[in-house]
Amino acid sequence: MVVLAGVAVAIVKVWRNIARMRRGRFGIPLLHMLFGIAGLAGLYALWFYGGWGWGYDRAPLQTRVVYDASRLTPANVDALRRRAVAELNRLAPLAHGLEVDAPRGEPLGFELLRNAWLPVVQRLGDRWTPAVGAAKPTLAGFFMDKNGTSGFTNPFTLETQLAPDLLWFERPFSQAHEWSHVAGYNREDEANYIAALTCMRDSDTVAQYSGWLEIFLYLPRLRDYPHKMFVPQVWEDFTALRARNAHFVNMSFSRFSWHVYNSYLKSNRVASGVRNYSEVTQLLVAIPLDRQGLPVTQLPLP
Questions:
Q1: Is the pLDDT at 10 greater than 80, yes or no?
Q2: 196-219 in b/e burial notation, b at 16+ Cβ within 10 A?
C-alpha cells in the first residue's frame, strides 16, 4: 500500500502538469513534474536506507553464539554434505507423498513453521516477538521470476513476498528466510542459517526436506554427483529446478540485478557481496546446537 500510494502521488503530479502543459505552459510545469517525482523517489530511498540499511549495523551472529572457527575444516564440511544427502534421501519419498496444493502465497504448515522459527531468532538475540505472517501477493512477481529472486521483504511495510514460480519444496525455507529479515537479521548468511535451523526443527516433513535441500545446494559444489547418490524423487526436484529457471529466468536481467545487489551488500560492509548467501555453510559447521536444535550461546561450565 505504501508503494501504491507513492505511485498514485506520482500519477496525480504527472496528470496535473500535463494539463498545464496543454494550456501552453511547457517548461516550468515539466520541471516541477520532474523535480517532484525525483523528490518522491528520494524520500523512498532515504526511508529504505535509513530503515533497512541500518540493520546491517547489528552485531554479527558469530558474536552472540559459540562460534568455533576450528571446526571449519574440509572434513566437517564433507560430514555436513553426507548428512544432507542422507536426510534428502530419507525425506524425499515422504515429502513427495505429502505434497499438496497450498493456497497461492501461503507456505505449507504455516503455524508449525512459525513455531519452529520463533525460538531460533529469540535464542540469537531478539527480545521481542516479530509479527510475521504468510507471504503476500506481490506486484513484483514478474521481475522476481525473471531475475531468479525467491523472496522479498518489503522494507516499508515489513511484509514478505515469495516469487510466484517457487516450487512447493522451496516455499518453507524461503518463507523462514524472509521472516528472518523481518526479525532484524539482514545479512543473507544469517537469514539462511535461521531458515535452515527452522526447517530442521519443524515437525513437518516438507519443511525438513526444504531445509536440507537448500543446505545441500549452498554447500561447495563437487565436480560430479553419481546417479546412485540420490533417490529418484531428489533427482526429479533437481530437474524441476533447472526447468523452472530455464523457463522463467532472463540471464541478462538476472546478471544485472544481482550485480546491483552485490554492490549494495558491499556498500553495507558485507565484503563477500552476494556470496554471503553461501556462507551459511560456515555457520552451520562452526556453531554447535543443543538438544532442541538451537544454537549454543555460551560455553558449558567446567
A1: no
A2: bbbbbbbebbbbbbbbbbbbbebb
Is 142's pLDDT higher than 60?
yes
C-alpha torsion 286→292→298→302, nearest 10? -100
pTM for the structure as a whole: 0.83
Taking alpha carbons only, the member of 285, 288, 223, 287 closest to residue 77 is: 285
Tens of pLDDT, residue by residue over 66-124, are 999 999 999 999 999 999 999 999 999 999 987 654 443 444 578 899 999 999 999 99
Report which secondary-structure segment, H or E, holds 160.
strand 160-162
What are the cell numbers at 32?
A: 516541477
In whole angstroms, what separates CA 64 from the centre of its chain?
21
- Containing 276, the helix (H) or strand (E) segment is none
Among candidate residues 53, 62, 10, 67, the one with its CA nearest the CA of residue 33: 10
Stretch (H or E) spanning 22: helix 2-22
Q: Do 179 and 119 form a contact (C-beta atoms < 8 A)? A: no
The residue type at 15: W
Model pLDDT for residues 49-64, shown as the tens digit of each residue:
556 666 777 788 898 8
Q: Give just the sign of the alpha carbon dihedral 60, 116, 238, 253.
A: negative
Cell of 228: 546412485
Distances (CA, A) of 178 to 165, 196, 214, 246, 288: 16, 12, 14, 24, 24
Other beta carbons within 10 Å of 141 = 17
